[in-house]
Amino acid sequence: MTVEIRTAEPAERLDALRPIWHYFGSPAGPNEERAAGMPLPEGRLHVATEDGAIVAGAGAFEFDLTVPDGPVATAGVTVVGVLPTHRRRGIVRELMSAQLKDAHARGEALAALWASEGGLYGRFGFGLASVCADAEIPKGHTAFNRTVDWPGTTRLVTADEALELFPPVYDRVAAATPGMFSRTEEWWKTRTLADAEWRRAGGGELAFAVLEHAGDPEAYAVYRLNFSYADGVPTGTTHVVEAMGATPAATAAVWRYLLDIDWMAKIEAELLPVDHPLLLLLLEQNWMRFRVGDGLWIRPVDVGAALAARAYADDGDLVLEVSDAFCPWNDGRYARDGSRTTAASDLRLSVDALGCVYLGGFTFSDLLRAGRVEEVKNGAVARADALFRTDRKPWCPEIF
Fold first, then answer.
1. H or E stretch including 139?
2. What is the predicted pLDDT for the residue at 201?
3. CATH topology for 303-388?
4. Which residues contact 54 (CB under 8 A, 6 or more apart)?
5. Which residues pair with 6 in a beta bridge?
6. Backbone torsions φ then ψ of 225, nearest 5 degrees
7. Which residues are tagged catalytic?
8. Residue limits of CATH 3.40.630.30 in the chain
9. Half-sphere exposure of residue 70, counting CA atoms within 13 Å on the CB side?
10. DSSP labels for 270-339?
11. Which fold has domain 133-293?
12. Neighbouring residues of 128: CB distance < 8 A, sequence distance ≥ 6
């Protein structure tokens, strides 16, 4: 039978999410409560149907993603799944093609995703653009190498209060951090601050803490206390869902607060940036158990628009010759400002390789050592590294 790719109707939302939920252990698909955590805009959910039945789906959020020098309209690819009955038939390829054409038509310069299978998305032009880390710190080894004196106040708040107090802090951090994206009020309500029973995985309820100075929020923490006791001693875990500060002092203070919570044996945190200040704040870094894995993947949907949207650390010229078999409208040579040019190429690379360096998470020298860029003119890699340099590693604090 023929498989048809089309945009899902609003009434088909739950059925369109069923393929990905099958792999989450829910063959019948999500209920309305669970689906509320996927606030997809209307028209951004594609499905594959066979004989009228939905057998695969793929969605996209609408983000403003921070890149060096500002936000860029981005398709946040999500919930890509094919039922096991229809695997290895090219359906994901067709879904991705439909999604990227749609994103291009909407004027979105980039697409971004978290990859459940990293080997899959390179063939569609996505490149690993950032890495992140999980950390586990025993309570007895959380001392800092300096004293942290927070001049403001720290207090626990409700989810409703957090909805008012946390976004300004997040927005300040996001504006300066490549890889972070804008959050709407709906996003905060249905994802960041939502605490349905099924989200807890047996842990405690979400707790929300805010650090304020001169009446303004400067840092916040979202965490769970997973309490346990054995043989007369606490064995529980402080699980940090998200913690950030708008200044270095606030960042140090919010982590000091989390590390000092009583009755816990260890602190766990996920999706930390690889240049997190904790690496230099902790007195005994070797107890941190800092495990690095892949983070955000980036795909230039419109190479010219993506290059034009980005700021550069140098004034030098550069001509990139980009190949893109999956989205052929991108094939060509580009000047640093994103304009097409007939000038001779300095570097040749595929669009997925460009995605790797776009946010500054990797360098052109990294690509060269991996055999993923061709240096046509001597010195071009060093020049490209100087242009694309950033002062902080890209970071996306949540999986979408």
1. none
2. 84
3. Nonspecific Lipid-transfer Protein; Chain A (3.30.1050)
4. 8, 12, 15, 16, 18, 19, 47, 48
5. 47
6. -105, 110
7. 121, 400
8. 3-108, 133-293
9. 9
10. EEEETT-THHHHBS-GGGS--EEEE-EEEEESSHHHHHHHS--SS----EEEEE-SSSGGG-EEEETTS-
11. Aminopeptidase (3.40.630)
12. 118, 294, 295, 297, 355, 356, 361, 362
What pLDDT is stored for residue 193 in this prediction?
Answer: 97
Q: What is d(CA 285, CA 141) in angstroms, rounded to the nearest whole number?
A: 9
pLDDT tens-digit profile of 25-60?
888 888 888 888 899 999 999 999 999 999 999 999
Q: Is CATH 3.40.630.30 the classification given to domain 3-108?
A: yes
Question: CA nearest 57: which of 88, 26, 25, 22?
Answer: 22
The Cα-based distances of 188 to 6, 271, 296 in angstroms read 29, 18, 20
Task: Give which of 275, 78, 175 is closest to 167, Cα–Cα.
Answer: 175
Tell me what pLDDT residue 231 has.
87
Other beta carbons within 10 angstroms of residue 179's beta carbon come to 25
* Residues 189 and 248 sit within 8 Å (Cβ to Cβ): no
**DSSP string over 211-228:** EEETTEEEEEEEEEEE--
Neighbouring-strand partners of residue 268: 136, 239
Task: List the chain residues with pLDDT less than 50.
Answer: none
Angle, helices 380-388/351-358, rounded to nearest 10 degrees: 50
Beta bridge partners of residue 237, listed in sequence order: 226, 266
Distance CA 69, CA 122 (A): 26
Tokens of 186: 């709906």
Asked whether 169 and 246 are in contact (CB, 8 A), the reply is yes
The predicted pLDDT at position 36 comes to 86
